[in-house]
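We emphasize that the prediction below concerns an isolated chain of 457 residues; any contacts that depend on oligomerization or on bound cofactors are therefore not represented. The input was used exactly as deposited, without trimming of termini.
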Amino acid sequence: MQGELDRVDPDACFEGAALDSRRIAGGELFFALEGEQTDGHRFVADAIECGAAAAVVERGVDLGGARLPVVRVDDCFEALHELTRHVRDRVPERLIGVTGSAGKTTTKDLLAAMLAERFRTASTPGNLNNLYGFPLALLGVPDDAEWMVAEMGMSEPGELGRVSRLGRPNIVLLSNIRPAHLGSFDSVTGVAEAKAEIFEGLTEGGLVVANADDPEVVRVAERERQRSGCEIAWFSLAGVVAEFESPTLRVSGLECPVDGRPGSRFTLAAGDARIEVSLLLPGRHNVENFLAAATTAHRVGVTLEEIARAVESAGPAPMRGVVHYVGGDARVFDDSYNSNPDALTKTLQAASELPARRHWAVIGEMLELGRRAPEFHRLAGAEAVRLGFDPIVGVGELARGLVAAAKEAGADARWIATADEAAAVAATELAGGDLVLVKGSRGVGLEVVVERLVRPS
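Result of the prediction step, given as a token string:
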């Protein structure tokens, strides 16, 4: 990182990096980035008070009388990336880049747990997966890490390629390609091309782990094999796919849910070796996320026994399929973190399989779907009714079409403008024996619905 040092010991060590003064734990290098909404230079004094060890700035700042070490650079954003590239030369030893349209965080967490059975493993905290978050994640990795499992995301063309080139993954895991971010892309094919940018950073001789059940994943993975000669390890929940090599691991005897509770039970096999696996995560789609992670872990030396043990207590991340029990026999299926058409369909399926007196749903609009948004919302409304959800509460402007389609299919459906209003409606609707699914795009903020239902005032 090129810059002018002011009161900085060139040999000083820092404990990671930070862009938000409120998230400083102590010892970090604070980068005063200038954004559309605010300017990090305004918060350098706050960073000092919170324990930052030094600040990276583009211009002079008011330090409030403190003598914080400062590095002055031409561009804080580029300096952050330059430092990331420098650190990546030695830490971690090896890196796995995980991407997909849905389930990235769950797959990342499962894979990290599996690798930790055998290796010193670090992973992306939460979903720090973009050009701002990934550098923070990597700069916080312990010096002795043998593997890092890095979630890599994108919202526009070119972004994922830049993240991948920063991370230089030894392995790329491409789990699925679905209708998401269509506000930035003209089709699912466009999304696939953007996801394929993750190959740009793949190291020479690297491995690609790819979903043989997803046609767009197959297309871009095969193209990359022809281009670079990389090896591909296929996984397939459907079983052997005739056009490809047999998947390394196989799932059989799948029971989902188990005894009426969220989760699954199945046999995992590699050659003649077999082991029974219990997974607490709800839905068949999470078995696919498991299989993606397990295939990757097995290829780097993790045994079937270690894989099964790693996931014994692995539950869903907050707002990603957590089932809350309310008042004894009512349940709230909280998948409120985000949504897209494919993820919504799979979550509706998972929730519908759980026994309940009545299944109903609070469904927020799905954002970033471009010109096909009305079509996707109408399809979602009809699918929810087909799977037995009634009543249905649609939240947000785009959800008008979802509600209209649900009504046409015979359901009691109601449109609500905001999450706060939906929370009030849901609180009056919830009754004993119910299972209510809550799911919507991040921007809708449906976590307030869950909060109202789970912790009523």
